[in-house]
Amino acid sequence: MTTIANLPFSKVRRSGGTVYLSGELGFDADGTLPAGIDAQTRNCLARIKATLQAEGLEMANVLSCTCYLTDKADFAAFNAAYAEFFADPKPVRTTVESGLMIDACVEITVIAEA
């Protein structure tokens, strides 16, 4: 089981009306990382949504997403799951292929406006 605890960074920071979320991974509620880009993307965005809600915000407040995929072949499946979480106007986005620190398929960080 892959878990992350006691890391030296903040999950959320506010500066004025801007809210910055650290990169989120697609862990299940029990702390396990499911197989596949679809499940991990959905979990990742659900966790982002919950963090935003705890800050009094919604997904509509997201201005920008930076997305890291470990395999560019997952791009279409990632896009399909990602699209379910955002309505127009959608946030700006950068998506890159990158190695991640653990065996995750995706990591997403967001900037939102309160």
Question: Would you kindly provide a written description of the structure presented here, covering whatever features stand out?
Answer:
The protein is α+β, with helices and mostly antiparallel strands and 114 residues long. 24% of the residues lie in helices and 30% in strands. The chain has 2 helices and 5 strands, in the order ββαβαββ. It has helices at 37-54, 75-83, and strands at residues 12-15, 18-25, 62-69, 92-97, 106-113. Strands 1-2-5-3-4 form a 5-stranded mixed beta sheet, covered by helices on one side. The protein is globular. The chain starts with 11 loop residues before the first strand and ends with a strand. The model has no long low-confidence stretch (mean pLDDT 93).
Core attributes:
114 residues; alpha+beta; 5-stranded mixed beta sheet; 5 strands; globular
Task: Break the fold down into its secondary structure elements and pairings.
Layout: E1 12-15, E2 18-25, H1 37-54, E3 62-69, H2 75-83, E4 92-97, E5 106-113
Parallel strand pairs: 3-4
Antiparallel strand pairs: 1-2, 2-5, 3-5
Helix pairs in contact: 1-2
Distance between the termini: 35 Å
Structural classification: alpha+beta
State the low-pLDDT regions, or none. none
Largest sheet: 5 strands, mixed
Question: Topology as H/E string?
Answer: EEHEHEE
How many distinct helices?
A: 2
User: What is the β-strand count?
Assistant: 5
- Multimeric state: single chain
- Our estimate of the beta-strand percent is 25-35%
Q: Helicity, in percent?
A: 10-25%
| Bulk shape | globular
- How are the strands ordered across the major sheet? 1-2-5-3-4
Any idea what the radius of gyration is? Answer: 13 Å
Q: What's the rounded overall pLDDT mean?
A: 93
